[in-house]
């Protein structure tokens, strides 16, 4: 890697006054709106600390009354204390002790990574750096001022360093992690450090952030006393009306990568950072005063290293605080470099005119403005440009305050951004527009769009947000947008998947899904326990060429696997079964072609699922379906299987076509006596209750049908060419046995439920020549084999084949065995849509499986596209007011005696467990344990149950474990001192904790909860 390699801005998220996200931020800038407002009531009593404007100007510093601010306005965030602690596994009490800047950084970082078309989980464990610019720490003043209320959580909840460390910890990022405080230039200096870290190879991704919250009037008072504060709380950079600083809040995160890496991954790029730099004013006319020569030297050196001159600069985002001295010095420093520029003037602006000086986040606020301007190829106007300060002589410096948006031309455009710190630490950056890239799209290509959330309420909100955004996207991006959602939006437990072949259908499906979440809860909920999957392969009678055509057109991996099997089959069949399937050729009804075709379809579907990581724990096959099942189980080589199924079909095709098959509404035990004396009939299949098939001579079948009709037993002839699994097949058995003799005889590597034996194959049994020969005439004992399968730990059965034949049979058997979820590769309705594979993958994912989505998309459609980032739950609030610094922090709600024991635990499907049977007394020890857990973490008791994980779900860490230990020892002194190591090992779930307490000899101990929720 080169030390001068450009760095790509691939993702971003921000919150600034008047803008909740980057889209609203851009709209605020383009509209030239004012984001300032009155000091919110929860901050402090602004009127109490307000210095009324004097009747005549008074500039004497010492005559200003102390403890007063000259303004009641500023740029404030809406609801900066809103947070989603459960999303990050943080206990409510811990969240309440955290500086809100840490909370904002966590959520903003997550959203910025998603904006980069990446899943935050994919960065876990990687050398991703976190660089946070921050200068305000007023939360510590408020939270740590009351010594009696300081807890262990306040240590980790405060401090500049924890802003970066929180992000690294909760996202499991292993690169450099540091907070940067150089006053107002902090966040742009953080960008400079991140660029160097990327170039040196310390990290491959970098999150660069800036944050600022105004929680007390302290800095306002300081600015007033220093003569730096604008009375109206607004910055008016380079304006004749400039009269000081208006303070502002903000939080923003950029995701940076080396440009070569971003382009290699075809990642969307907002803009490119070409060069950054930082220096110090040194000794000037005061430590808080700017130094023109230092600014000029820094800007010139960064431009030189970036390989540009003033002629290349399209616009400059200045520091622009709106102080007379600061504006003058900055204009002079820039003018020395731009005044000799050829052509027109350079556009000049400062985002501080829109909402104020965001201090620690000021540099990144200006940088994001420049990034978005390059991305949109438009520079927003500058507020107060109509009242430009003539003393600055901006036209003479070839600088131009924009009164209206400036459209940037084509080709590469450069921008520059400055940020200067009060103590003299300066930073500057040069950016360029992103390189043009062209990607092919496929109109009409289907996809499956995935949306996941931590809870059902968030699922609905995120579904609607995605639907609204997709409604504005080009239709030919459908598959790429779907692939991106699979990559970014598929890791959380509450899930919805919508398959579609066009964007309007997808948008409608997402909105319908949101409505279903409202009415019935989420459409799919991930299971905590790993699903156990069985593949069930259909046999003859399941033929439906439409399904294969759908899979072949819309799933590249399936097409590849079907092509490969077709090549193995063609030497034996003499014709391409693939072509016959796709053309829906009537010739397929011949057994010599139909059986190989059914095998090819089943094999290709299973291979596609296996390539996507969906592998079965068990297999079962119905008749010809056993050959594909044997291949998946490793008992039969695919080449051998292709030869054998082709030979099997050919041999059966040589037999007379005087046979048939009859489905009768009788159990197998009831049907078998009817075959006595009928030598040319046999029991062909026992598929379930009142689902039996008899096969054989047509004449004898006709006589049997008449007898059944007289007995009022339903009987239905099947559309088949021969009497399969009947005595009429005996003439081909020995020849087929000889054909099987050359096939490798291997033991299956996973359990096979044989429909010849009606049970699981024993350890010593293999699918040898005798087995395959016997299979031709033996009845298909599907019901017995399926019942044995359902008695295992299987949670999902995927029917593999061109039509859903076994799924209804399995549904009838569930009353006698387990209740796994049934899924199938064929479309459930009459019409086979062009995106059944996408539907199936969505169903698999909603069922808790994790498919490899790439198999659904060709390379051209595996292109990242930006999607709206996650919408967090904002119901949590925790704030400390500058007017009331000792306000109690939120804690757990009061817990009525025994309330916890009345809360039903949830199953691994997220559903309430059945109520405790009458006569079963609730466990008071369990109630106490849950109560103490809730008090330690501040959790709602209604959300805590035996299956709740203390670390992942409740955010327990070592500090909370120690507190829980102390509470347990206090409430249950009989226990004595609990060994910390034992307790930590027993804290996987709340239920584990209860079992541990019982194991300490408390079983049967009487524990009574008092009205205060303590034990006695």
UniProtKB/TrEMBL annotation:
<dbReference type="InterPro" id="IPR020806">
    <property type="entry name" value="PKS_PP-bd"/>
</dbReference>
<keyword id="KW-0045">Antibiotic biosynthesis</keyword>
<dbReference type="Pfam" id="PF16197">
    <property type="entry name" value="KAsynt_C_assoc"/>
</dbReference>
<dbReference type="InterPro" id="IPR001227">
    <property type="entry name" value="Ac_transferase_dom_sf"/>
</dbReference>
<dbReference type="Pfam" id="PF00109">
    <property type="entry name" value="ketoacyl-synt"/>
</dbReference>
<dbReference type="GO" id="GO:0016746">
    <property type="term" value="F:acyltransferase activity"/>
</dbReference>
<dbReference type="InterPro" id="IPR036736">
    <property type="entry name" value="ACP-like_sf"/>
</dbReference>
<dbReference type="Pfam" id="PF00550">
    <property type="entry name" value="PP-binding"/>
</dbReference>
<dbReference type="InterPro" id="IPR016039">
    <property type="entry name" value="Thiolase-like"/>
</dbReference>
<keyword id="KW-0596">Phosphopantetheine</keyword>
<dbReference type="InterPro" id="IPR016035">
    <property type="entry name" value="Acyl_Trfase/lysoPLipase"/>
</dbReference>
<dbReference type="InterPro" id="IPR014031">
    <property type="entry name" value="Ketoacyl_synth_C"/>
</dbReference>
<protein>
    <submittedName>
        <fullName>Acyltransferase domain-containing protein</fullName>
    </submittedName>
</protein>
<keyword id="KW-0597">Phosphoprotein</keyword>
<dbReference type="InterPro" id="IPR009081">
    <property type="entry name" value="PP-bd_ACP"/>
</dbReference>
<feature type="domain" description="Ketosynthase family 3 (KS3)">
    <location>
        <begin position="4"/>
        <end position="433"/>
    </location>
</feature>
<dbReference type="InterPro" id="IPR050091">
    <property type="entry name" value="PKS_NRPS_Biosynth_Enz"/>
</dbReference>
<feature type="domain" description="Carrier">
    <location>
        <begin position="923"/>
        <end position="1001"/>
    </location>
</feature>
<dbReference type="InterPro" id="IPR018201">
    <property type="entry name" value="Ketoacyl_synth_AS"/>
</dbReference>
<dbReference type="InterPro" id="IPR032821">
    <property type="entry name" value="PKS_assoc"/>
</dbReference>
<dbReference type="Pfam" id="PF00698">
    <property type="entry name" value="Acyl_transf_1"/>
</dbReference>
<dbReference type="InterPro" id="IPR014043">
    <property type="entry name" value="Acyl_transferase_dom"/>
</dbReference>
<feature type="compositionally biased region" description="Pro residues">
    <location>
        <begin position="887"/>
        <end position="897"/>
    </location>
</feature>
<dbReference type="InterPro" id="IPR020841">
    <property type="entry name" value="PKS_Beta-ketoAc_synthase_dom"/>
</dbReference>
<dbReference type="InterPro" id="IPR014030">
    <property type="entry name" value="Ketoacyl_synth_N"/>
</dbReference>
<keyword id="KW-0808">Transferase</keyword>
<keyword id="KW-0012">Acyltransferase</keyword>
<dbReference type="InterPro" id="IPR016036">
    <property type="entry name" value="Malonyl_transacylase_ACP-bd"/>
</dbReference>
<dbReference type="Pfam" id="PF02801">
    <property type="entry name" value="Ketoacyl-synt_C"/>
</dbReference>
<feature type="region of interest" description="Disordered">
    <location>
        <begin position="881"/>
        <end position="922"/>
    </location>
</feature>
